[in-house]
Every structure is written in structure tokens, then in C-alpha cells.
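A protein record in our archive is deliberately plain, so that people and models can read it alike. The record that follows is passed on verbatim for readers who wish to inspect the format.
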Amino acid sequence: MKEQIITRDVVANPKTKYGNAKASTRHFITQRLTGAINVLFILFLVFIVAKLAGADRADMVATIGNGWIGLPLALLLVIVTIHMRNGMRDTLEDYFAGRAYSTYMTLNTLFCVVIAVAGVAAILKLVFWG
């Protein structure tokens, strides 16, 4: 089977089957939704940073260990990593294709999962076990 070379003309032609329409729509909506949530959460984050400015470790642990602060902060971390993964996906799509794209996208996903899990675990430890 002959592999088609993907050029600007192929992508611009609506009759070609380039990409997955449902995945692209989901990616677009996820990127916009997580971006909007990040904008809303920025006020919360600024409040936390301002409150903790100049505080010692005990005050920081007590503040982040509060469930009303720590749980939304953990949710924010998850949403930020989803947004980060999608943004990096856009960059990887621009510069890589085929096997290299798949490899870098897998590494990107793994990195984002590690950041989210480590951060959420640290926050939940403070919330539930001080």
C-alpha cells in the first residue's frame, strides 16, 4: 500500500480523511474548557500565594492541609496538567510525525501523569494526615 504524503493541500482538501474529527473536537473543547477553568482558579491561587507570603512551614502546612483549600488545589493541579498535556500535544503535532510523534506524546502523557499524581498525593497527604 502506497503511503500518502501529507501536504498542506491534502490537509486543506475537505474530501481527504485527515485526522480523527471526534478526537479533534474533544481536544479543542478540552483545551478551551480547562483554559477557562484555569482562569477562574487563578484568583484562588493568587489568594493562596498572598496568604502564604512570608509564612513559615507550619502555617503553610496548616493552610494547604485545610480541606477547603487543599482539595480545590489538588483539583486545580489535575486540570492544569490536562491543559499542559493538550498544549504540548499541539506543539508535538507541529514538529513530529509518525513514530517520533507517538513516542514523544507517550512521554508527554507520562510526564503529566507523574506530575499530577505526585502533586495530588502530596496535597492529599497534607489534607488527610497533616
Summary: The radius of gyration is 20 Å. The domain at 21-129 is CATH 1.20.1300.10 (3 helical TM bundles of succinate and fumarate reductases). The chain has one domain: 21-129. DSSP finds five helices and no strands in the chain.
